[in-house]
Amino acid sequence: MWRRGLIVLTLGLLLGSCAPSGPETARRGTAAPETPLAKPPLAARFGAPQPEPPQVANTQIARDVLDLAFLLESGKSLPVFTRFETPVTLRVAGDAPPSLSADLARLLRRLREEAGVDITETKAAEANITLVPVSRETIRKELPQAACFVIPGVSSLAEYRRARRAGSTSWVDVQERQTAAVFLPADAAPQELRDCLHEEIAQALGPLNDLYRLGDSVFNDDNVHTVLSGYDMLVLRVFYDPALRSGMSRAEVAQALPAILARLNPRGESLPDRHLAPTPRPWIDAIQTALSTGAPMPKRRASAEDALRLAQREGWRDHRLGFAHFVLGRLLQGDEPAAARAEFDAARRVFAALPGARLHEAYVDAQLGALALRAGDAARTLELVTPQQETATRYENAALLATLKMLRAEALQMSGRASEAEQVRLDSLGWARYGFGPDWAAEAKLRQIAALNPMNGS
Length: 458
Prior knowledge:
Radius of gyration: 22 Å
Structural class: alpha/beta
Largest sheet: 6 strands, mixed
Number of helices: 19
Distance between the termini: 45 Å
Shape: globular
Oligomer: single chain
Strand content: 5-15%
Strand order of the largest sheet: 1-5-6-4-2-3
Order of helices and strands: EHHHEHEEHEHEHHHHHHHHHHHHH
């Protein structure tokens, strides 16, 4: 399994199509950012986790668990249920990036407390799960579309390469999980590294599939959620329930799930089942083409339009319809801002009507706030982005939070509140250091957003 590296919601791309292109963009900007950049704060950190409980019927969760446990992203079926049957040990091989230790400790604590997984870090030479920090270039050479990935039965890059040549890296052949290696981008921004920790360790432990129908989960290739949600922790708790064991068939797991979920998630017994249908392959292909930075823009736009038509034809009213509107809006944003705004408004209406879609709304409001700033409407920008700072904080998305704060600062600057703008801009830099990485990346984002302000010159 692997985390995609080219989804439109990766925040290196957020707002990118709003800003003018070309070398002038890097030079242009308001004078205000120059002061805080002289002494940027250290990378900011989030407080205690605030996961929301799942807002899904147990009958739907049961279907999700079966598809997460018995199918791969390729569509290939797995013959039996697998998990670790002993307490899980985890080690870090080689030199760990500075941010990894704290984020790993936080994640392991959550897995123990929220998912009930018996997992601990070890300094021993061998462990069930080995984290292998490598360069992003190395990951691209192994899997060009991946930001990070997990492989069963190996503990190092050399072992993975030997196993791949021998054709023995498939989860289909696993009967019980004993070892796995997670390959992480050591030179990525702290947030990208943390996101990889969450998804790949969780998949080493449990779900081996990603499903677009999951609205509140990291096990979704839209990459909206970047840290394990309350839903994800419940799924992992189900995986490690004593009523299940490695080697069970799909039918045996299906028979056991209703009682497990009634015990672990009594609230889900009374929630209505929304009967979300499986996502058809043509929609997945269209969305992935629309999101791919390697495809020509006309093809990406045509694919986004195809995905929206397919969603409407399927009669969806869930987050997949909203996401299709959002992706199309992103691709229209640079050249057709009015059309983009219409798509974002449509996406927002879909998300606002759904339980558990507040983070989706925050992404939309960041884009609408950028368009309002570009149009010179500071009041509307503040109205959109200010409340969503709390959402970004709750869902621990530092890159989104930094972007919202930068938009807010620019709107305050436009409103004549320069002192307040400077303080908000300075605060954004601590989050940017965690979300975007090096100072030059944070400064580039500041300049990009400053370029949206018409008062800064054309």
